[in-house]
TrEMBL record, chain A:
Pfam families: HpcH_HpaI. This is CoA ester lyase. Keywords: Lyase, Magnesium, Metal-binding. Residues 3-210 form the HpcH/HpaI aldolase/citrate lyase domain. GO terms for molecular function: lyase activity. The lineage of its organism: Bacteria, Pseudomonadati, Campylobacterota, Epsilonproteobacteria, Campylobacterales. Its cofactor is Mg(2+). InterPro entries: Aldolase/citrate-lyase_domain, Citrate_lyase_beta/mcl1/mcl2, Pyrv/PenolPyrv_kinase-like_dom, Pyrv_kinase-like_dom_sf.
UniProtKB/TrEMBL annotation, chain B:
Pfam families: ACP (PF06857). This is Citrate lyase acyl carrier protein. The keyword Cytoplasm applies. It is found in: Cytoplasm. The keyword Cytoplasm applies. It comes from the Bacteria. Keywords: Cytoplasm, Lyase, Phosphoprotein. GO terms for molecular function: lyase activity. It comes from Campylobacter canadensis.
């Protein structure tokens, strides 16, 4: 489950020490944008030691630097890391080589790709199908910057990218993770944005503030009405199967395979 | 002197320079209840990794072992370059 993936600056000892306490489904230790060029070595050593010496009860992800990817993957492969987040994923051959390299060092490592450029989005339909990729994450700030778009409250400028990336992820049967909500003081805006992307079909959202975690989890958790509806659907299916009835309905509405799958998903998410 | 880390809470600042022997200087040692533990941690790391000619100064601000060892490793790596 990846409802929330919390970014933690890779050279901040206090934040790293407390990263597991906020209840996010995953933490992303950031060696890239959150670390200055002169402190990359220091951050890598700090994150590696944290992964080996501290206990985190969530998915442990590290965002690496594309220009030093092999060295960082080598160092991280010797730790208790779960996943690597590769930023600015664009070139299919380059990413494929990196994934193979990572898998050769640590077979069980999962790969998440950050799609944050126009070319990355264009190539995402190939990137998503690379063996070992378990999620595509959308980075709206870099994407809109490259597009020359202006960020707005209604997010119209990222609608195409969100929907395209989501479609690719569903086709490849991997997780689709949305861009962080960057206004840390606008809870109503966060709820609106999260509800919108949840209803589109996204599996989760990257997070830059621990305060956003519970809000996003509440948005992703099925409501009581949804759980009751899902239980009723599964009960109706069971009854129909017992009666060997071919046509199944609930409150006058026909129940078919997509409805059953939706009900099962709701029950799975509610557990 | 090469310095790595910060003086922010939960971190430490470790400074190193080449020296005739291994020597560890702990800033405000008498005020830190973990000073002996940290000095032993640093000493053991240096012995295990053959760093016997280095002067190490530590300014601890409540860092855990993972952080102290990471800052020390980085400082020694930079000193070697």
């Amino acid at each position: 489950m990846r409802r929330t993936l919390l970014f933690i600056p890779g050279n901040n000892a206090g934040n790293i020490q407390n990263a597991g306490l906020f209840g996010a489904d995953g933490v992303i230790f950031d060696l890239e944008d959150a670390v200055s060029l002169t402190q990359k070595d220091s951050a890598l050593n700090l994150v590696c030691n944290a992964l080996n010496m501290l206990n985190y009860e969530c998915e442990k992800i590290v965002r690496i630097n594309l220009d030093n990817a092999k060295n960082e993957i080598l160092a991280l492969s010797k730790t208790k890391i779960d996943s690597i987040l590769i930023p600015k994923a664009e070139d299919v051959k380059e990413i494929s080589k990196l994934i193979k390299y990572a898998k050769s060092l640590k077979a069980k490592i999962k790969i998440l790709l950050l799609i944050e450029t126009a070319l990355g989005l264009l190539n995402s339909k190939e990137l998503a199908f690379l063996k070992g990729v378990s999620a595509l994450c959308f980075g709206a700030e870099d994407y809109t910057s490259q597009m020359g778009a202006t960020r707005s409250d209604d997010n119209k400028e990222i609608e195409y990218a969100r929907n395209y990336l989501l479609n690719v992820c569903k086709a490849a049967n991997i997780d689709a993770i949305d861009t962080p909500y960057t206004d840390t003081n606008n809870e109503a805006g966060l709820i609106k944005d999260t509800t919108y992307i949840k209803n589109l079909g996204f599996d989760g959202k990257m997070v830059i503030s621990p305060r956003h975690i519970d809000v996003i989890h509440n948005c992703f958790n099925p409501s009581l009405a949804e759980i009751i509806w899902a239980n009723n659907v599964l009960e109706a299916i069971k009854k129909a199967e017992n009666k060997k009835s071919g046509v199944i309905s609930l409150n006058g509405k026909m129940i078919d395979a997509p409805i059953v799958n939706r009900a099962k998903n709701i029950i799975r998410k509610s557990l | 002197m090469i310095s790595v880390g910060t003086t922010e809470s939960n971190d430490c600042l470790i400074s190193v320079k080449k020296h005739k022997k291994l020597e560890i200087f702990f800033i405000n040692e008498e005020e830190n209840p973990y000073a002996n533990h940290i000095k032993k941690l640093i000493n053991d790391y240096c012995l295990d990794n053959n760093h016997s000619n280095v002067f190490i100064e530590i300014n601890d601000k409540g860092a855990l072992d993972f952080c102290i060892l990471a800052r020390l490793k980085t400082a020694l790596e930079r000193l070697e370059k």
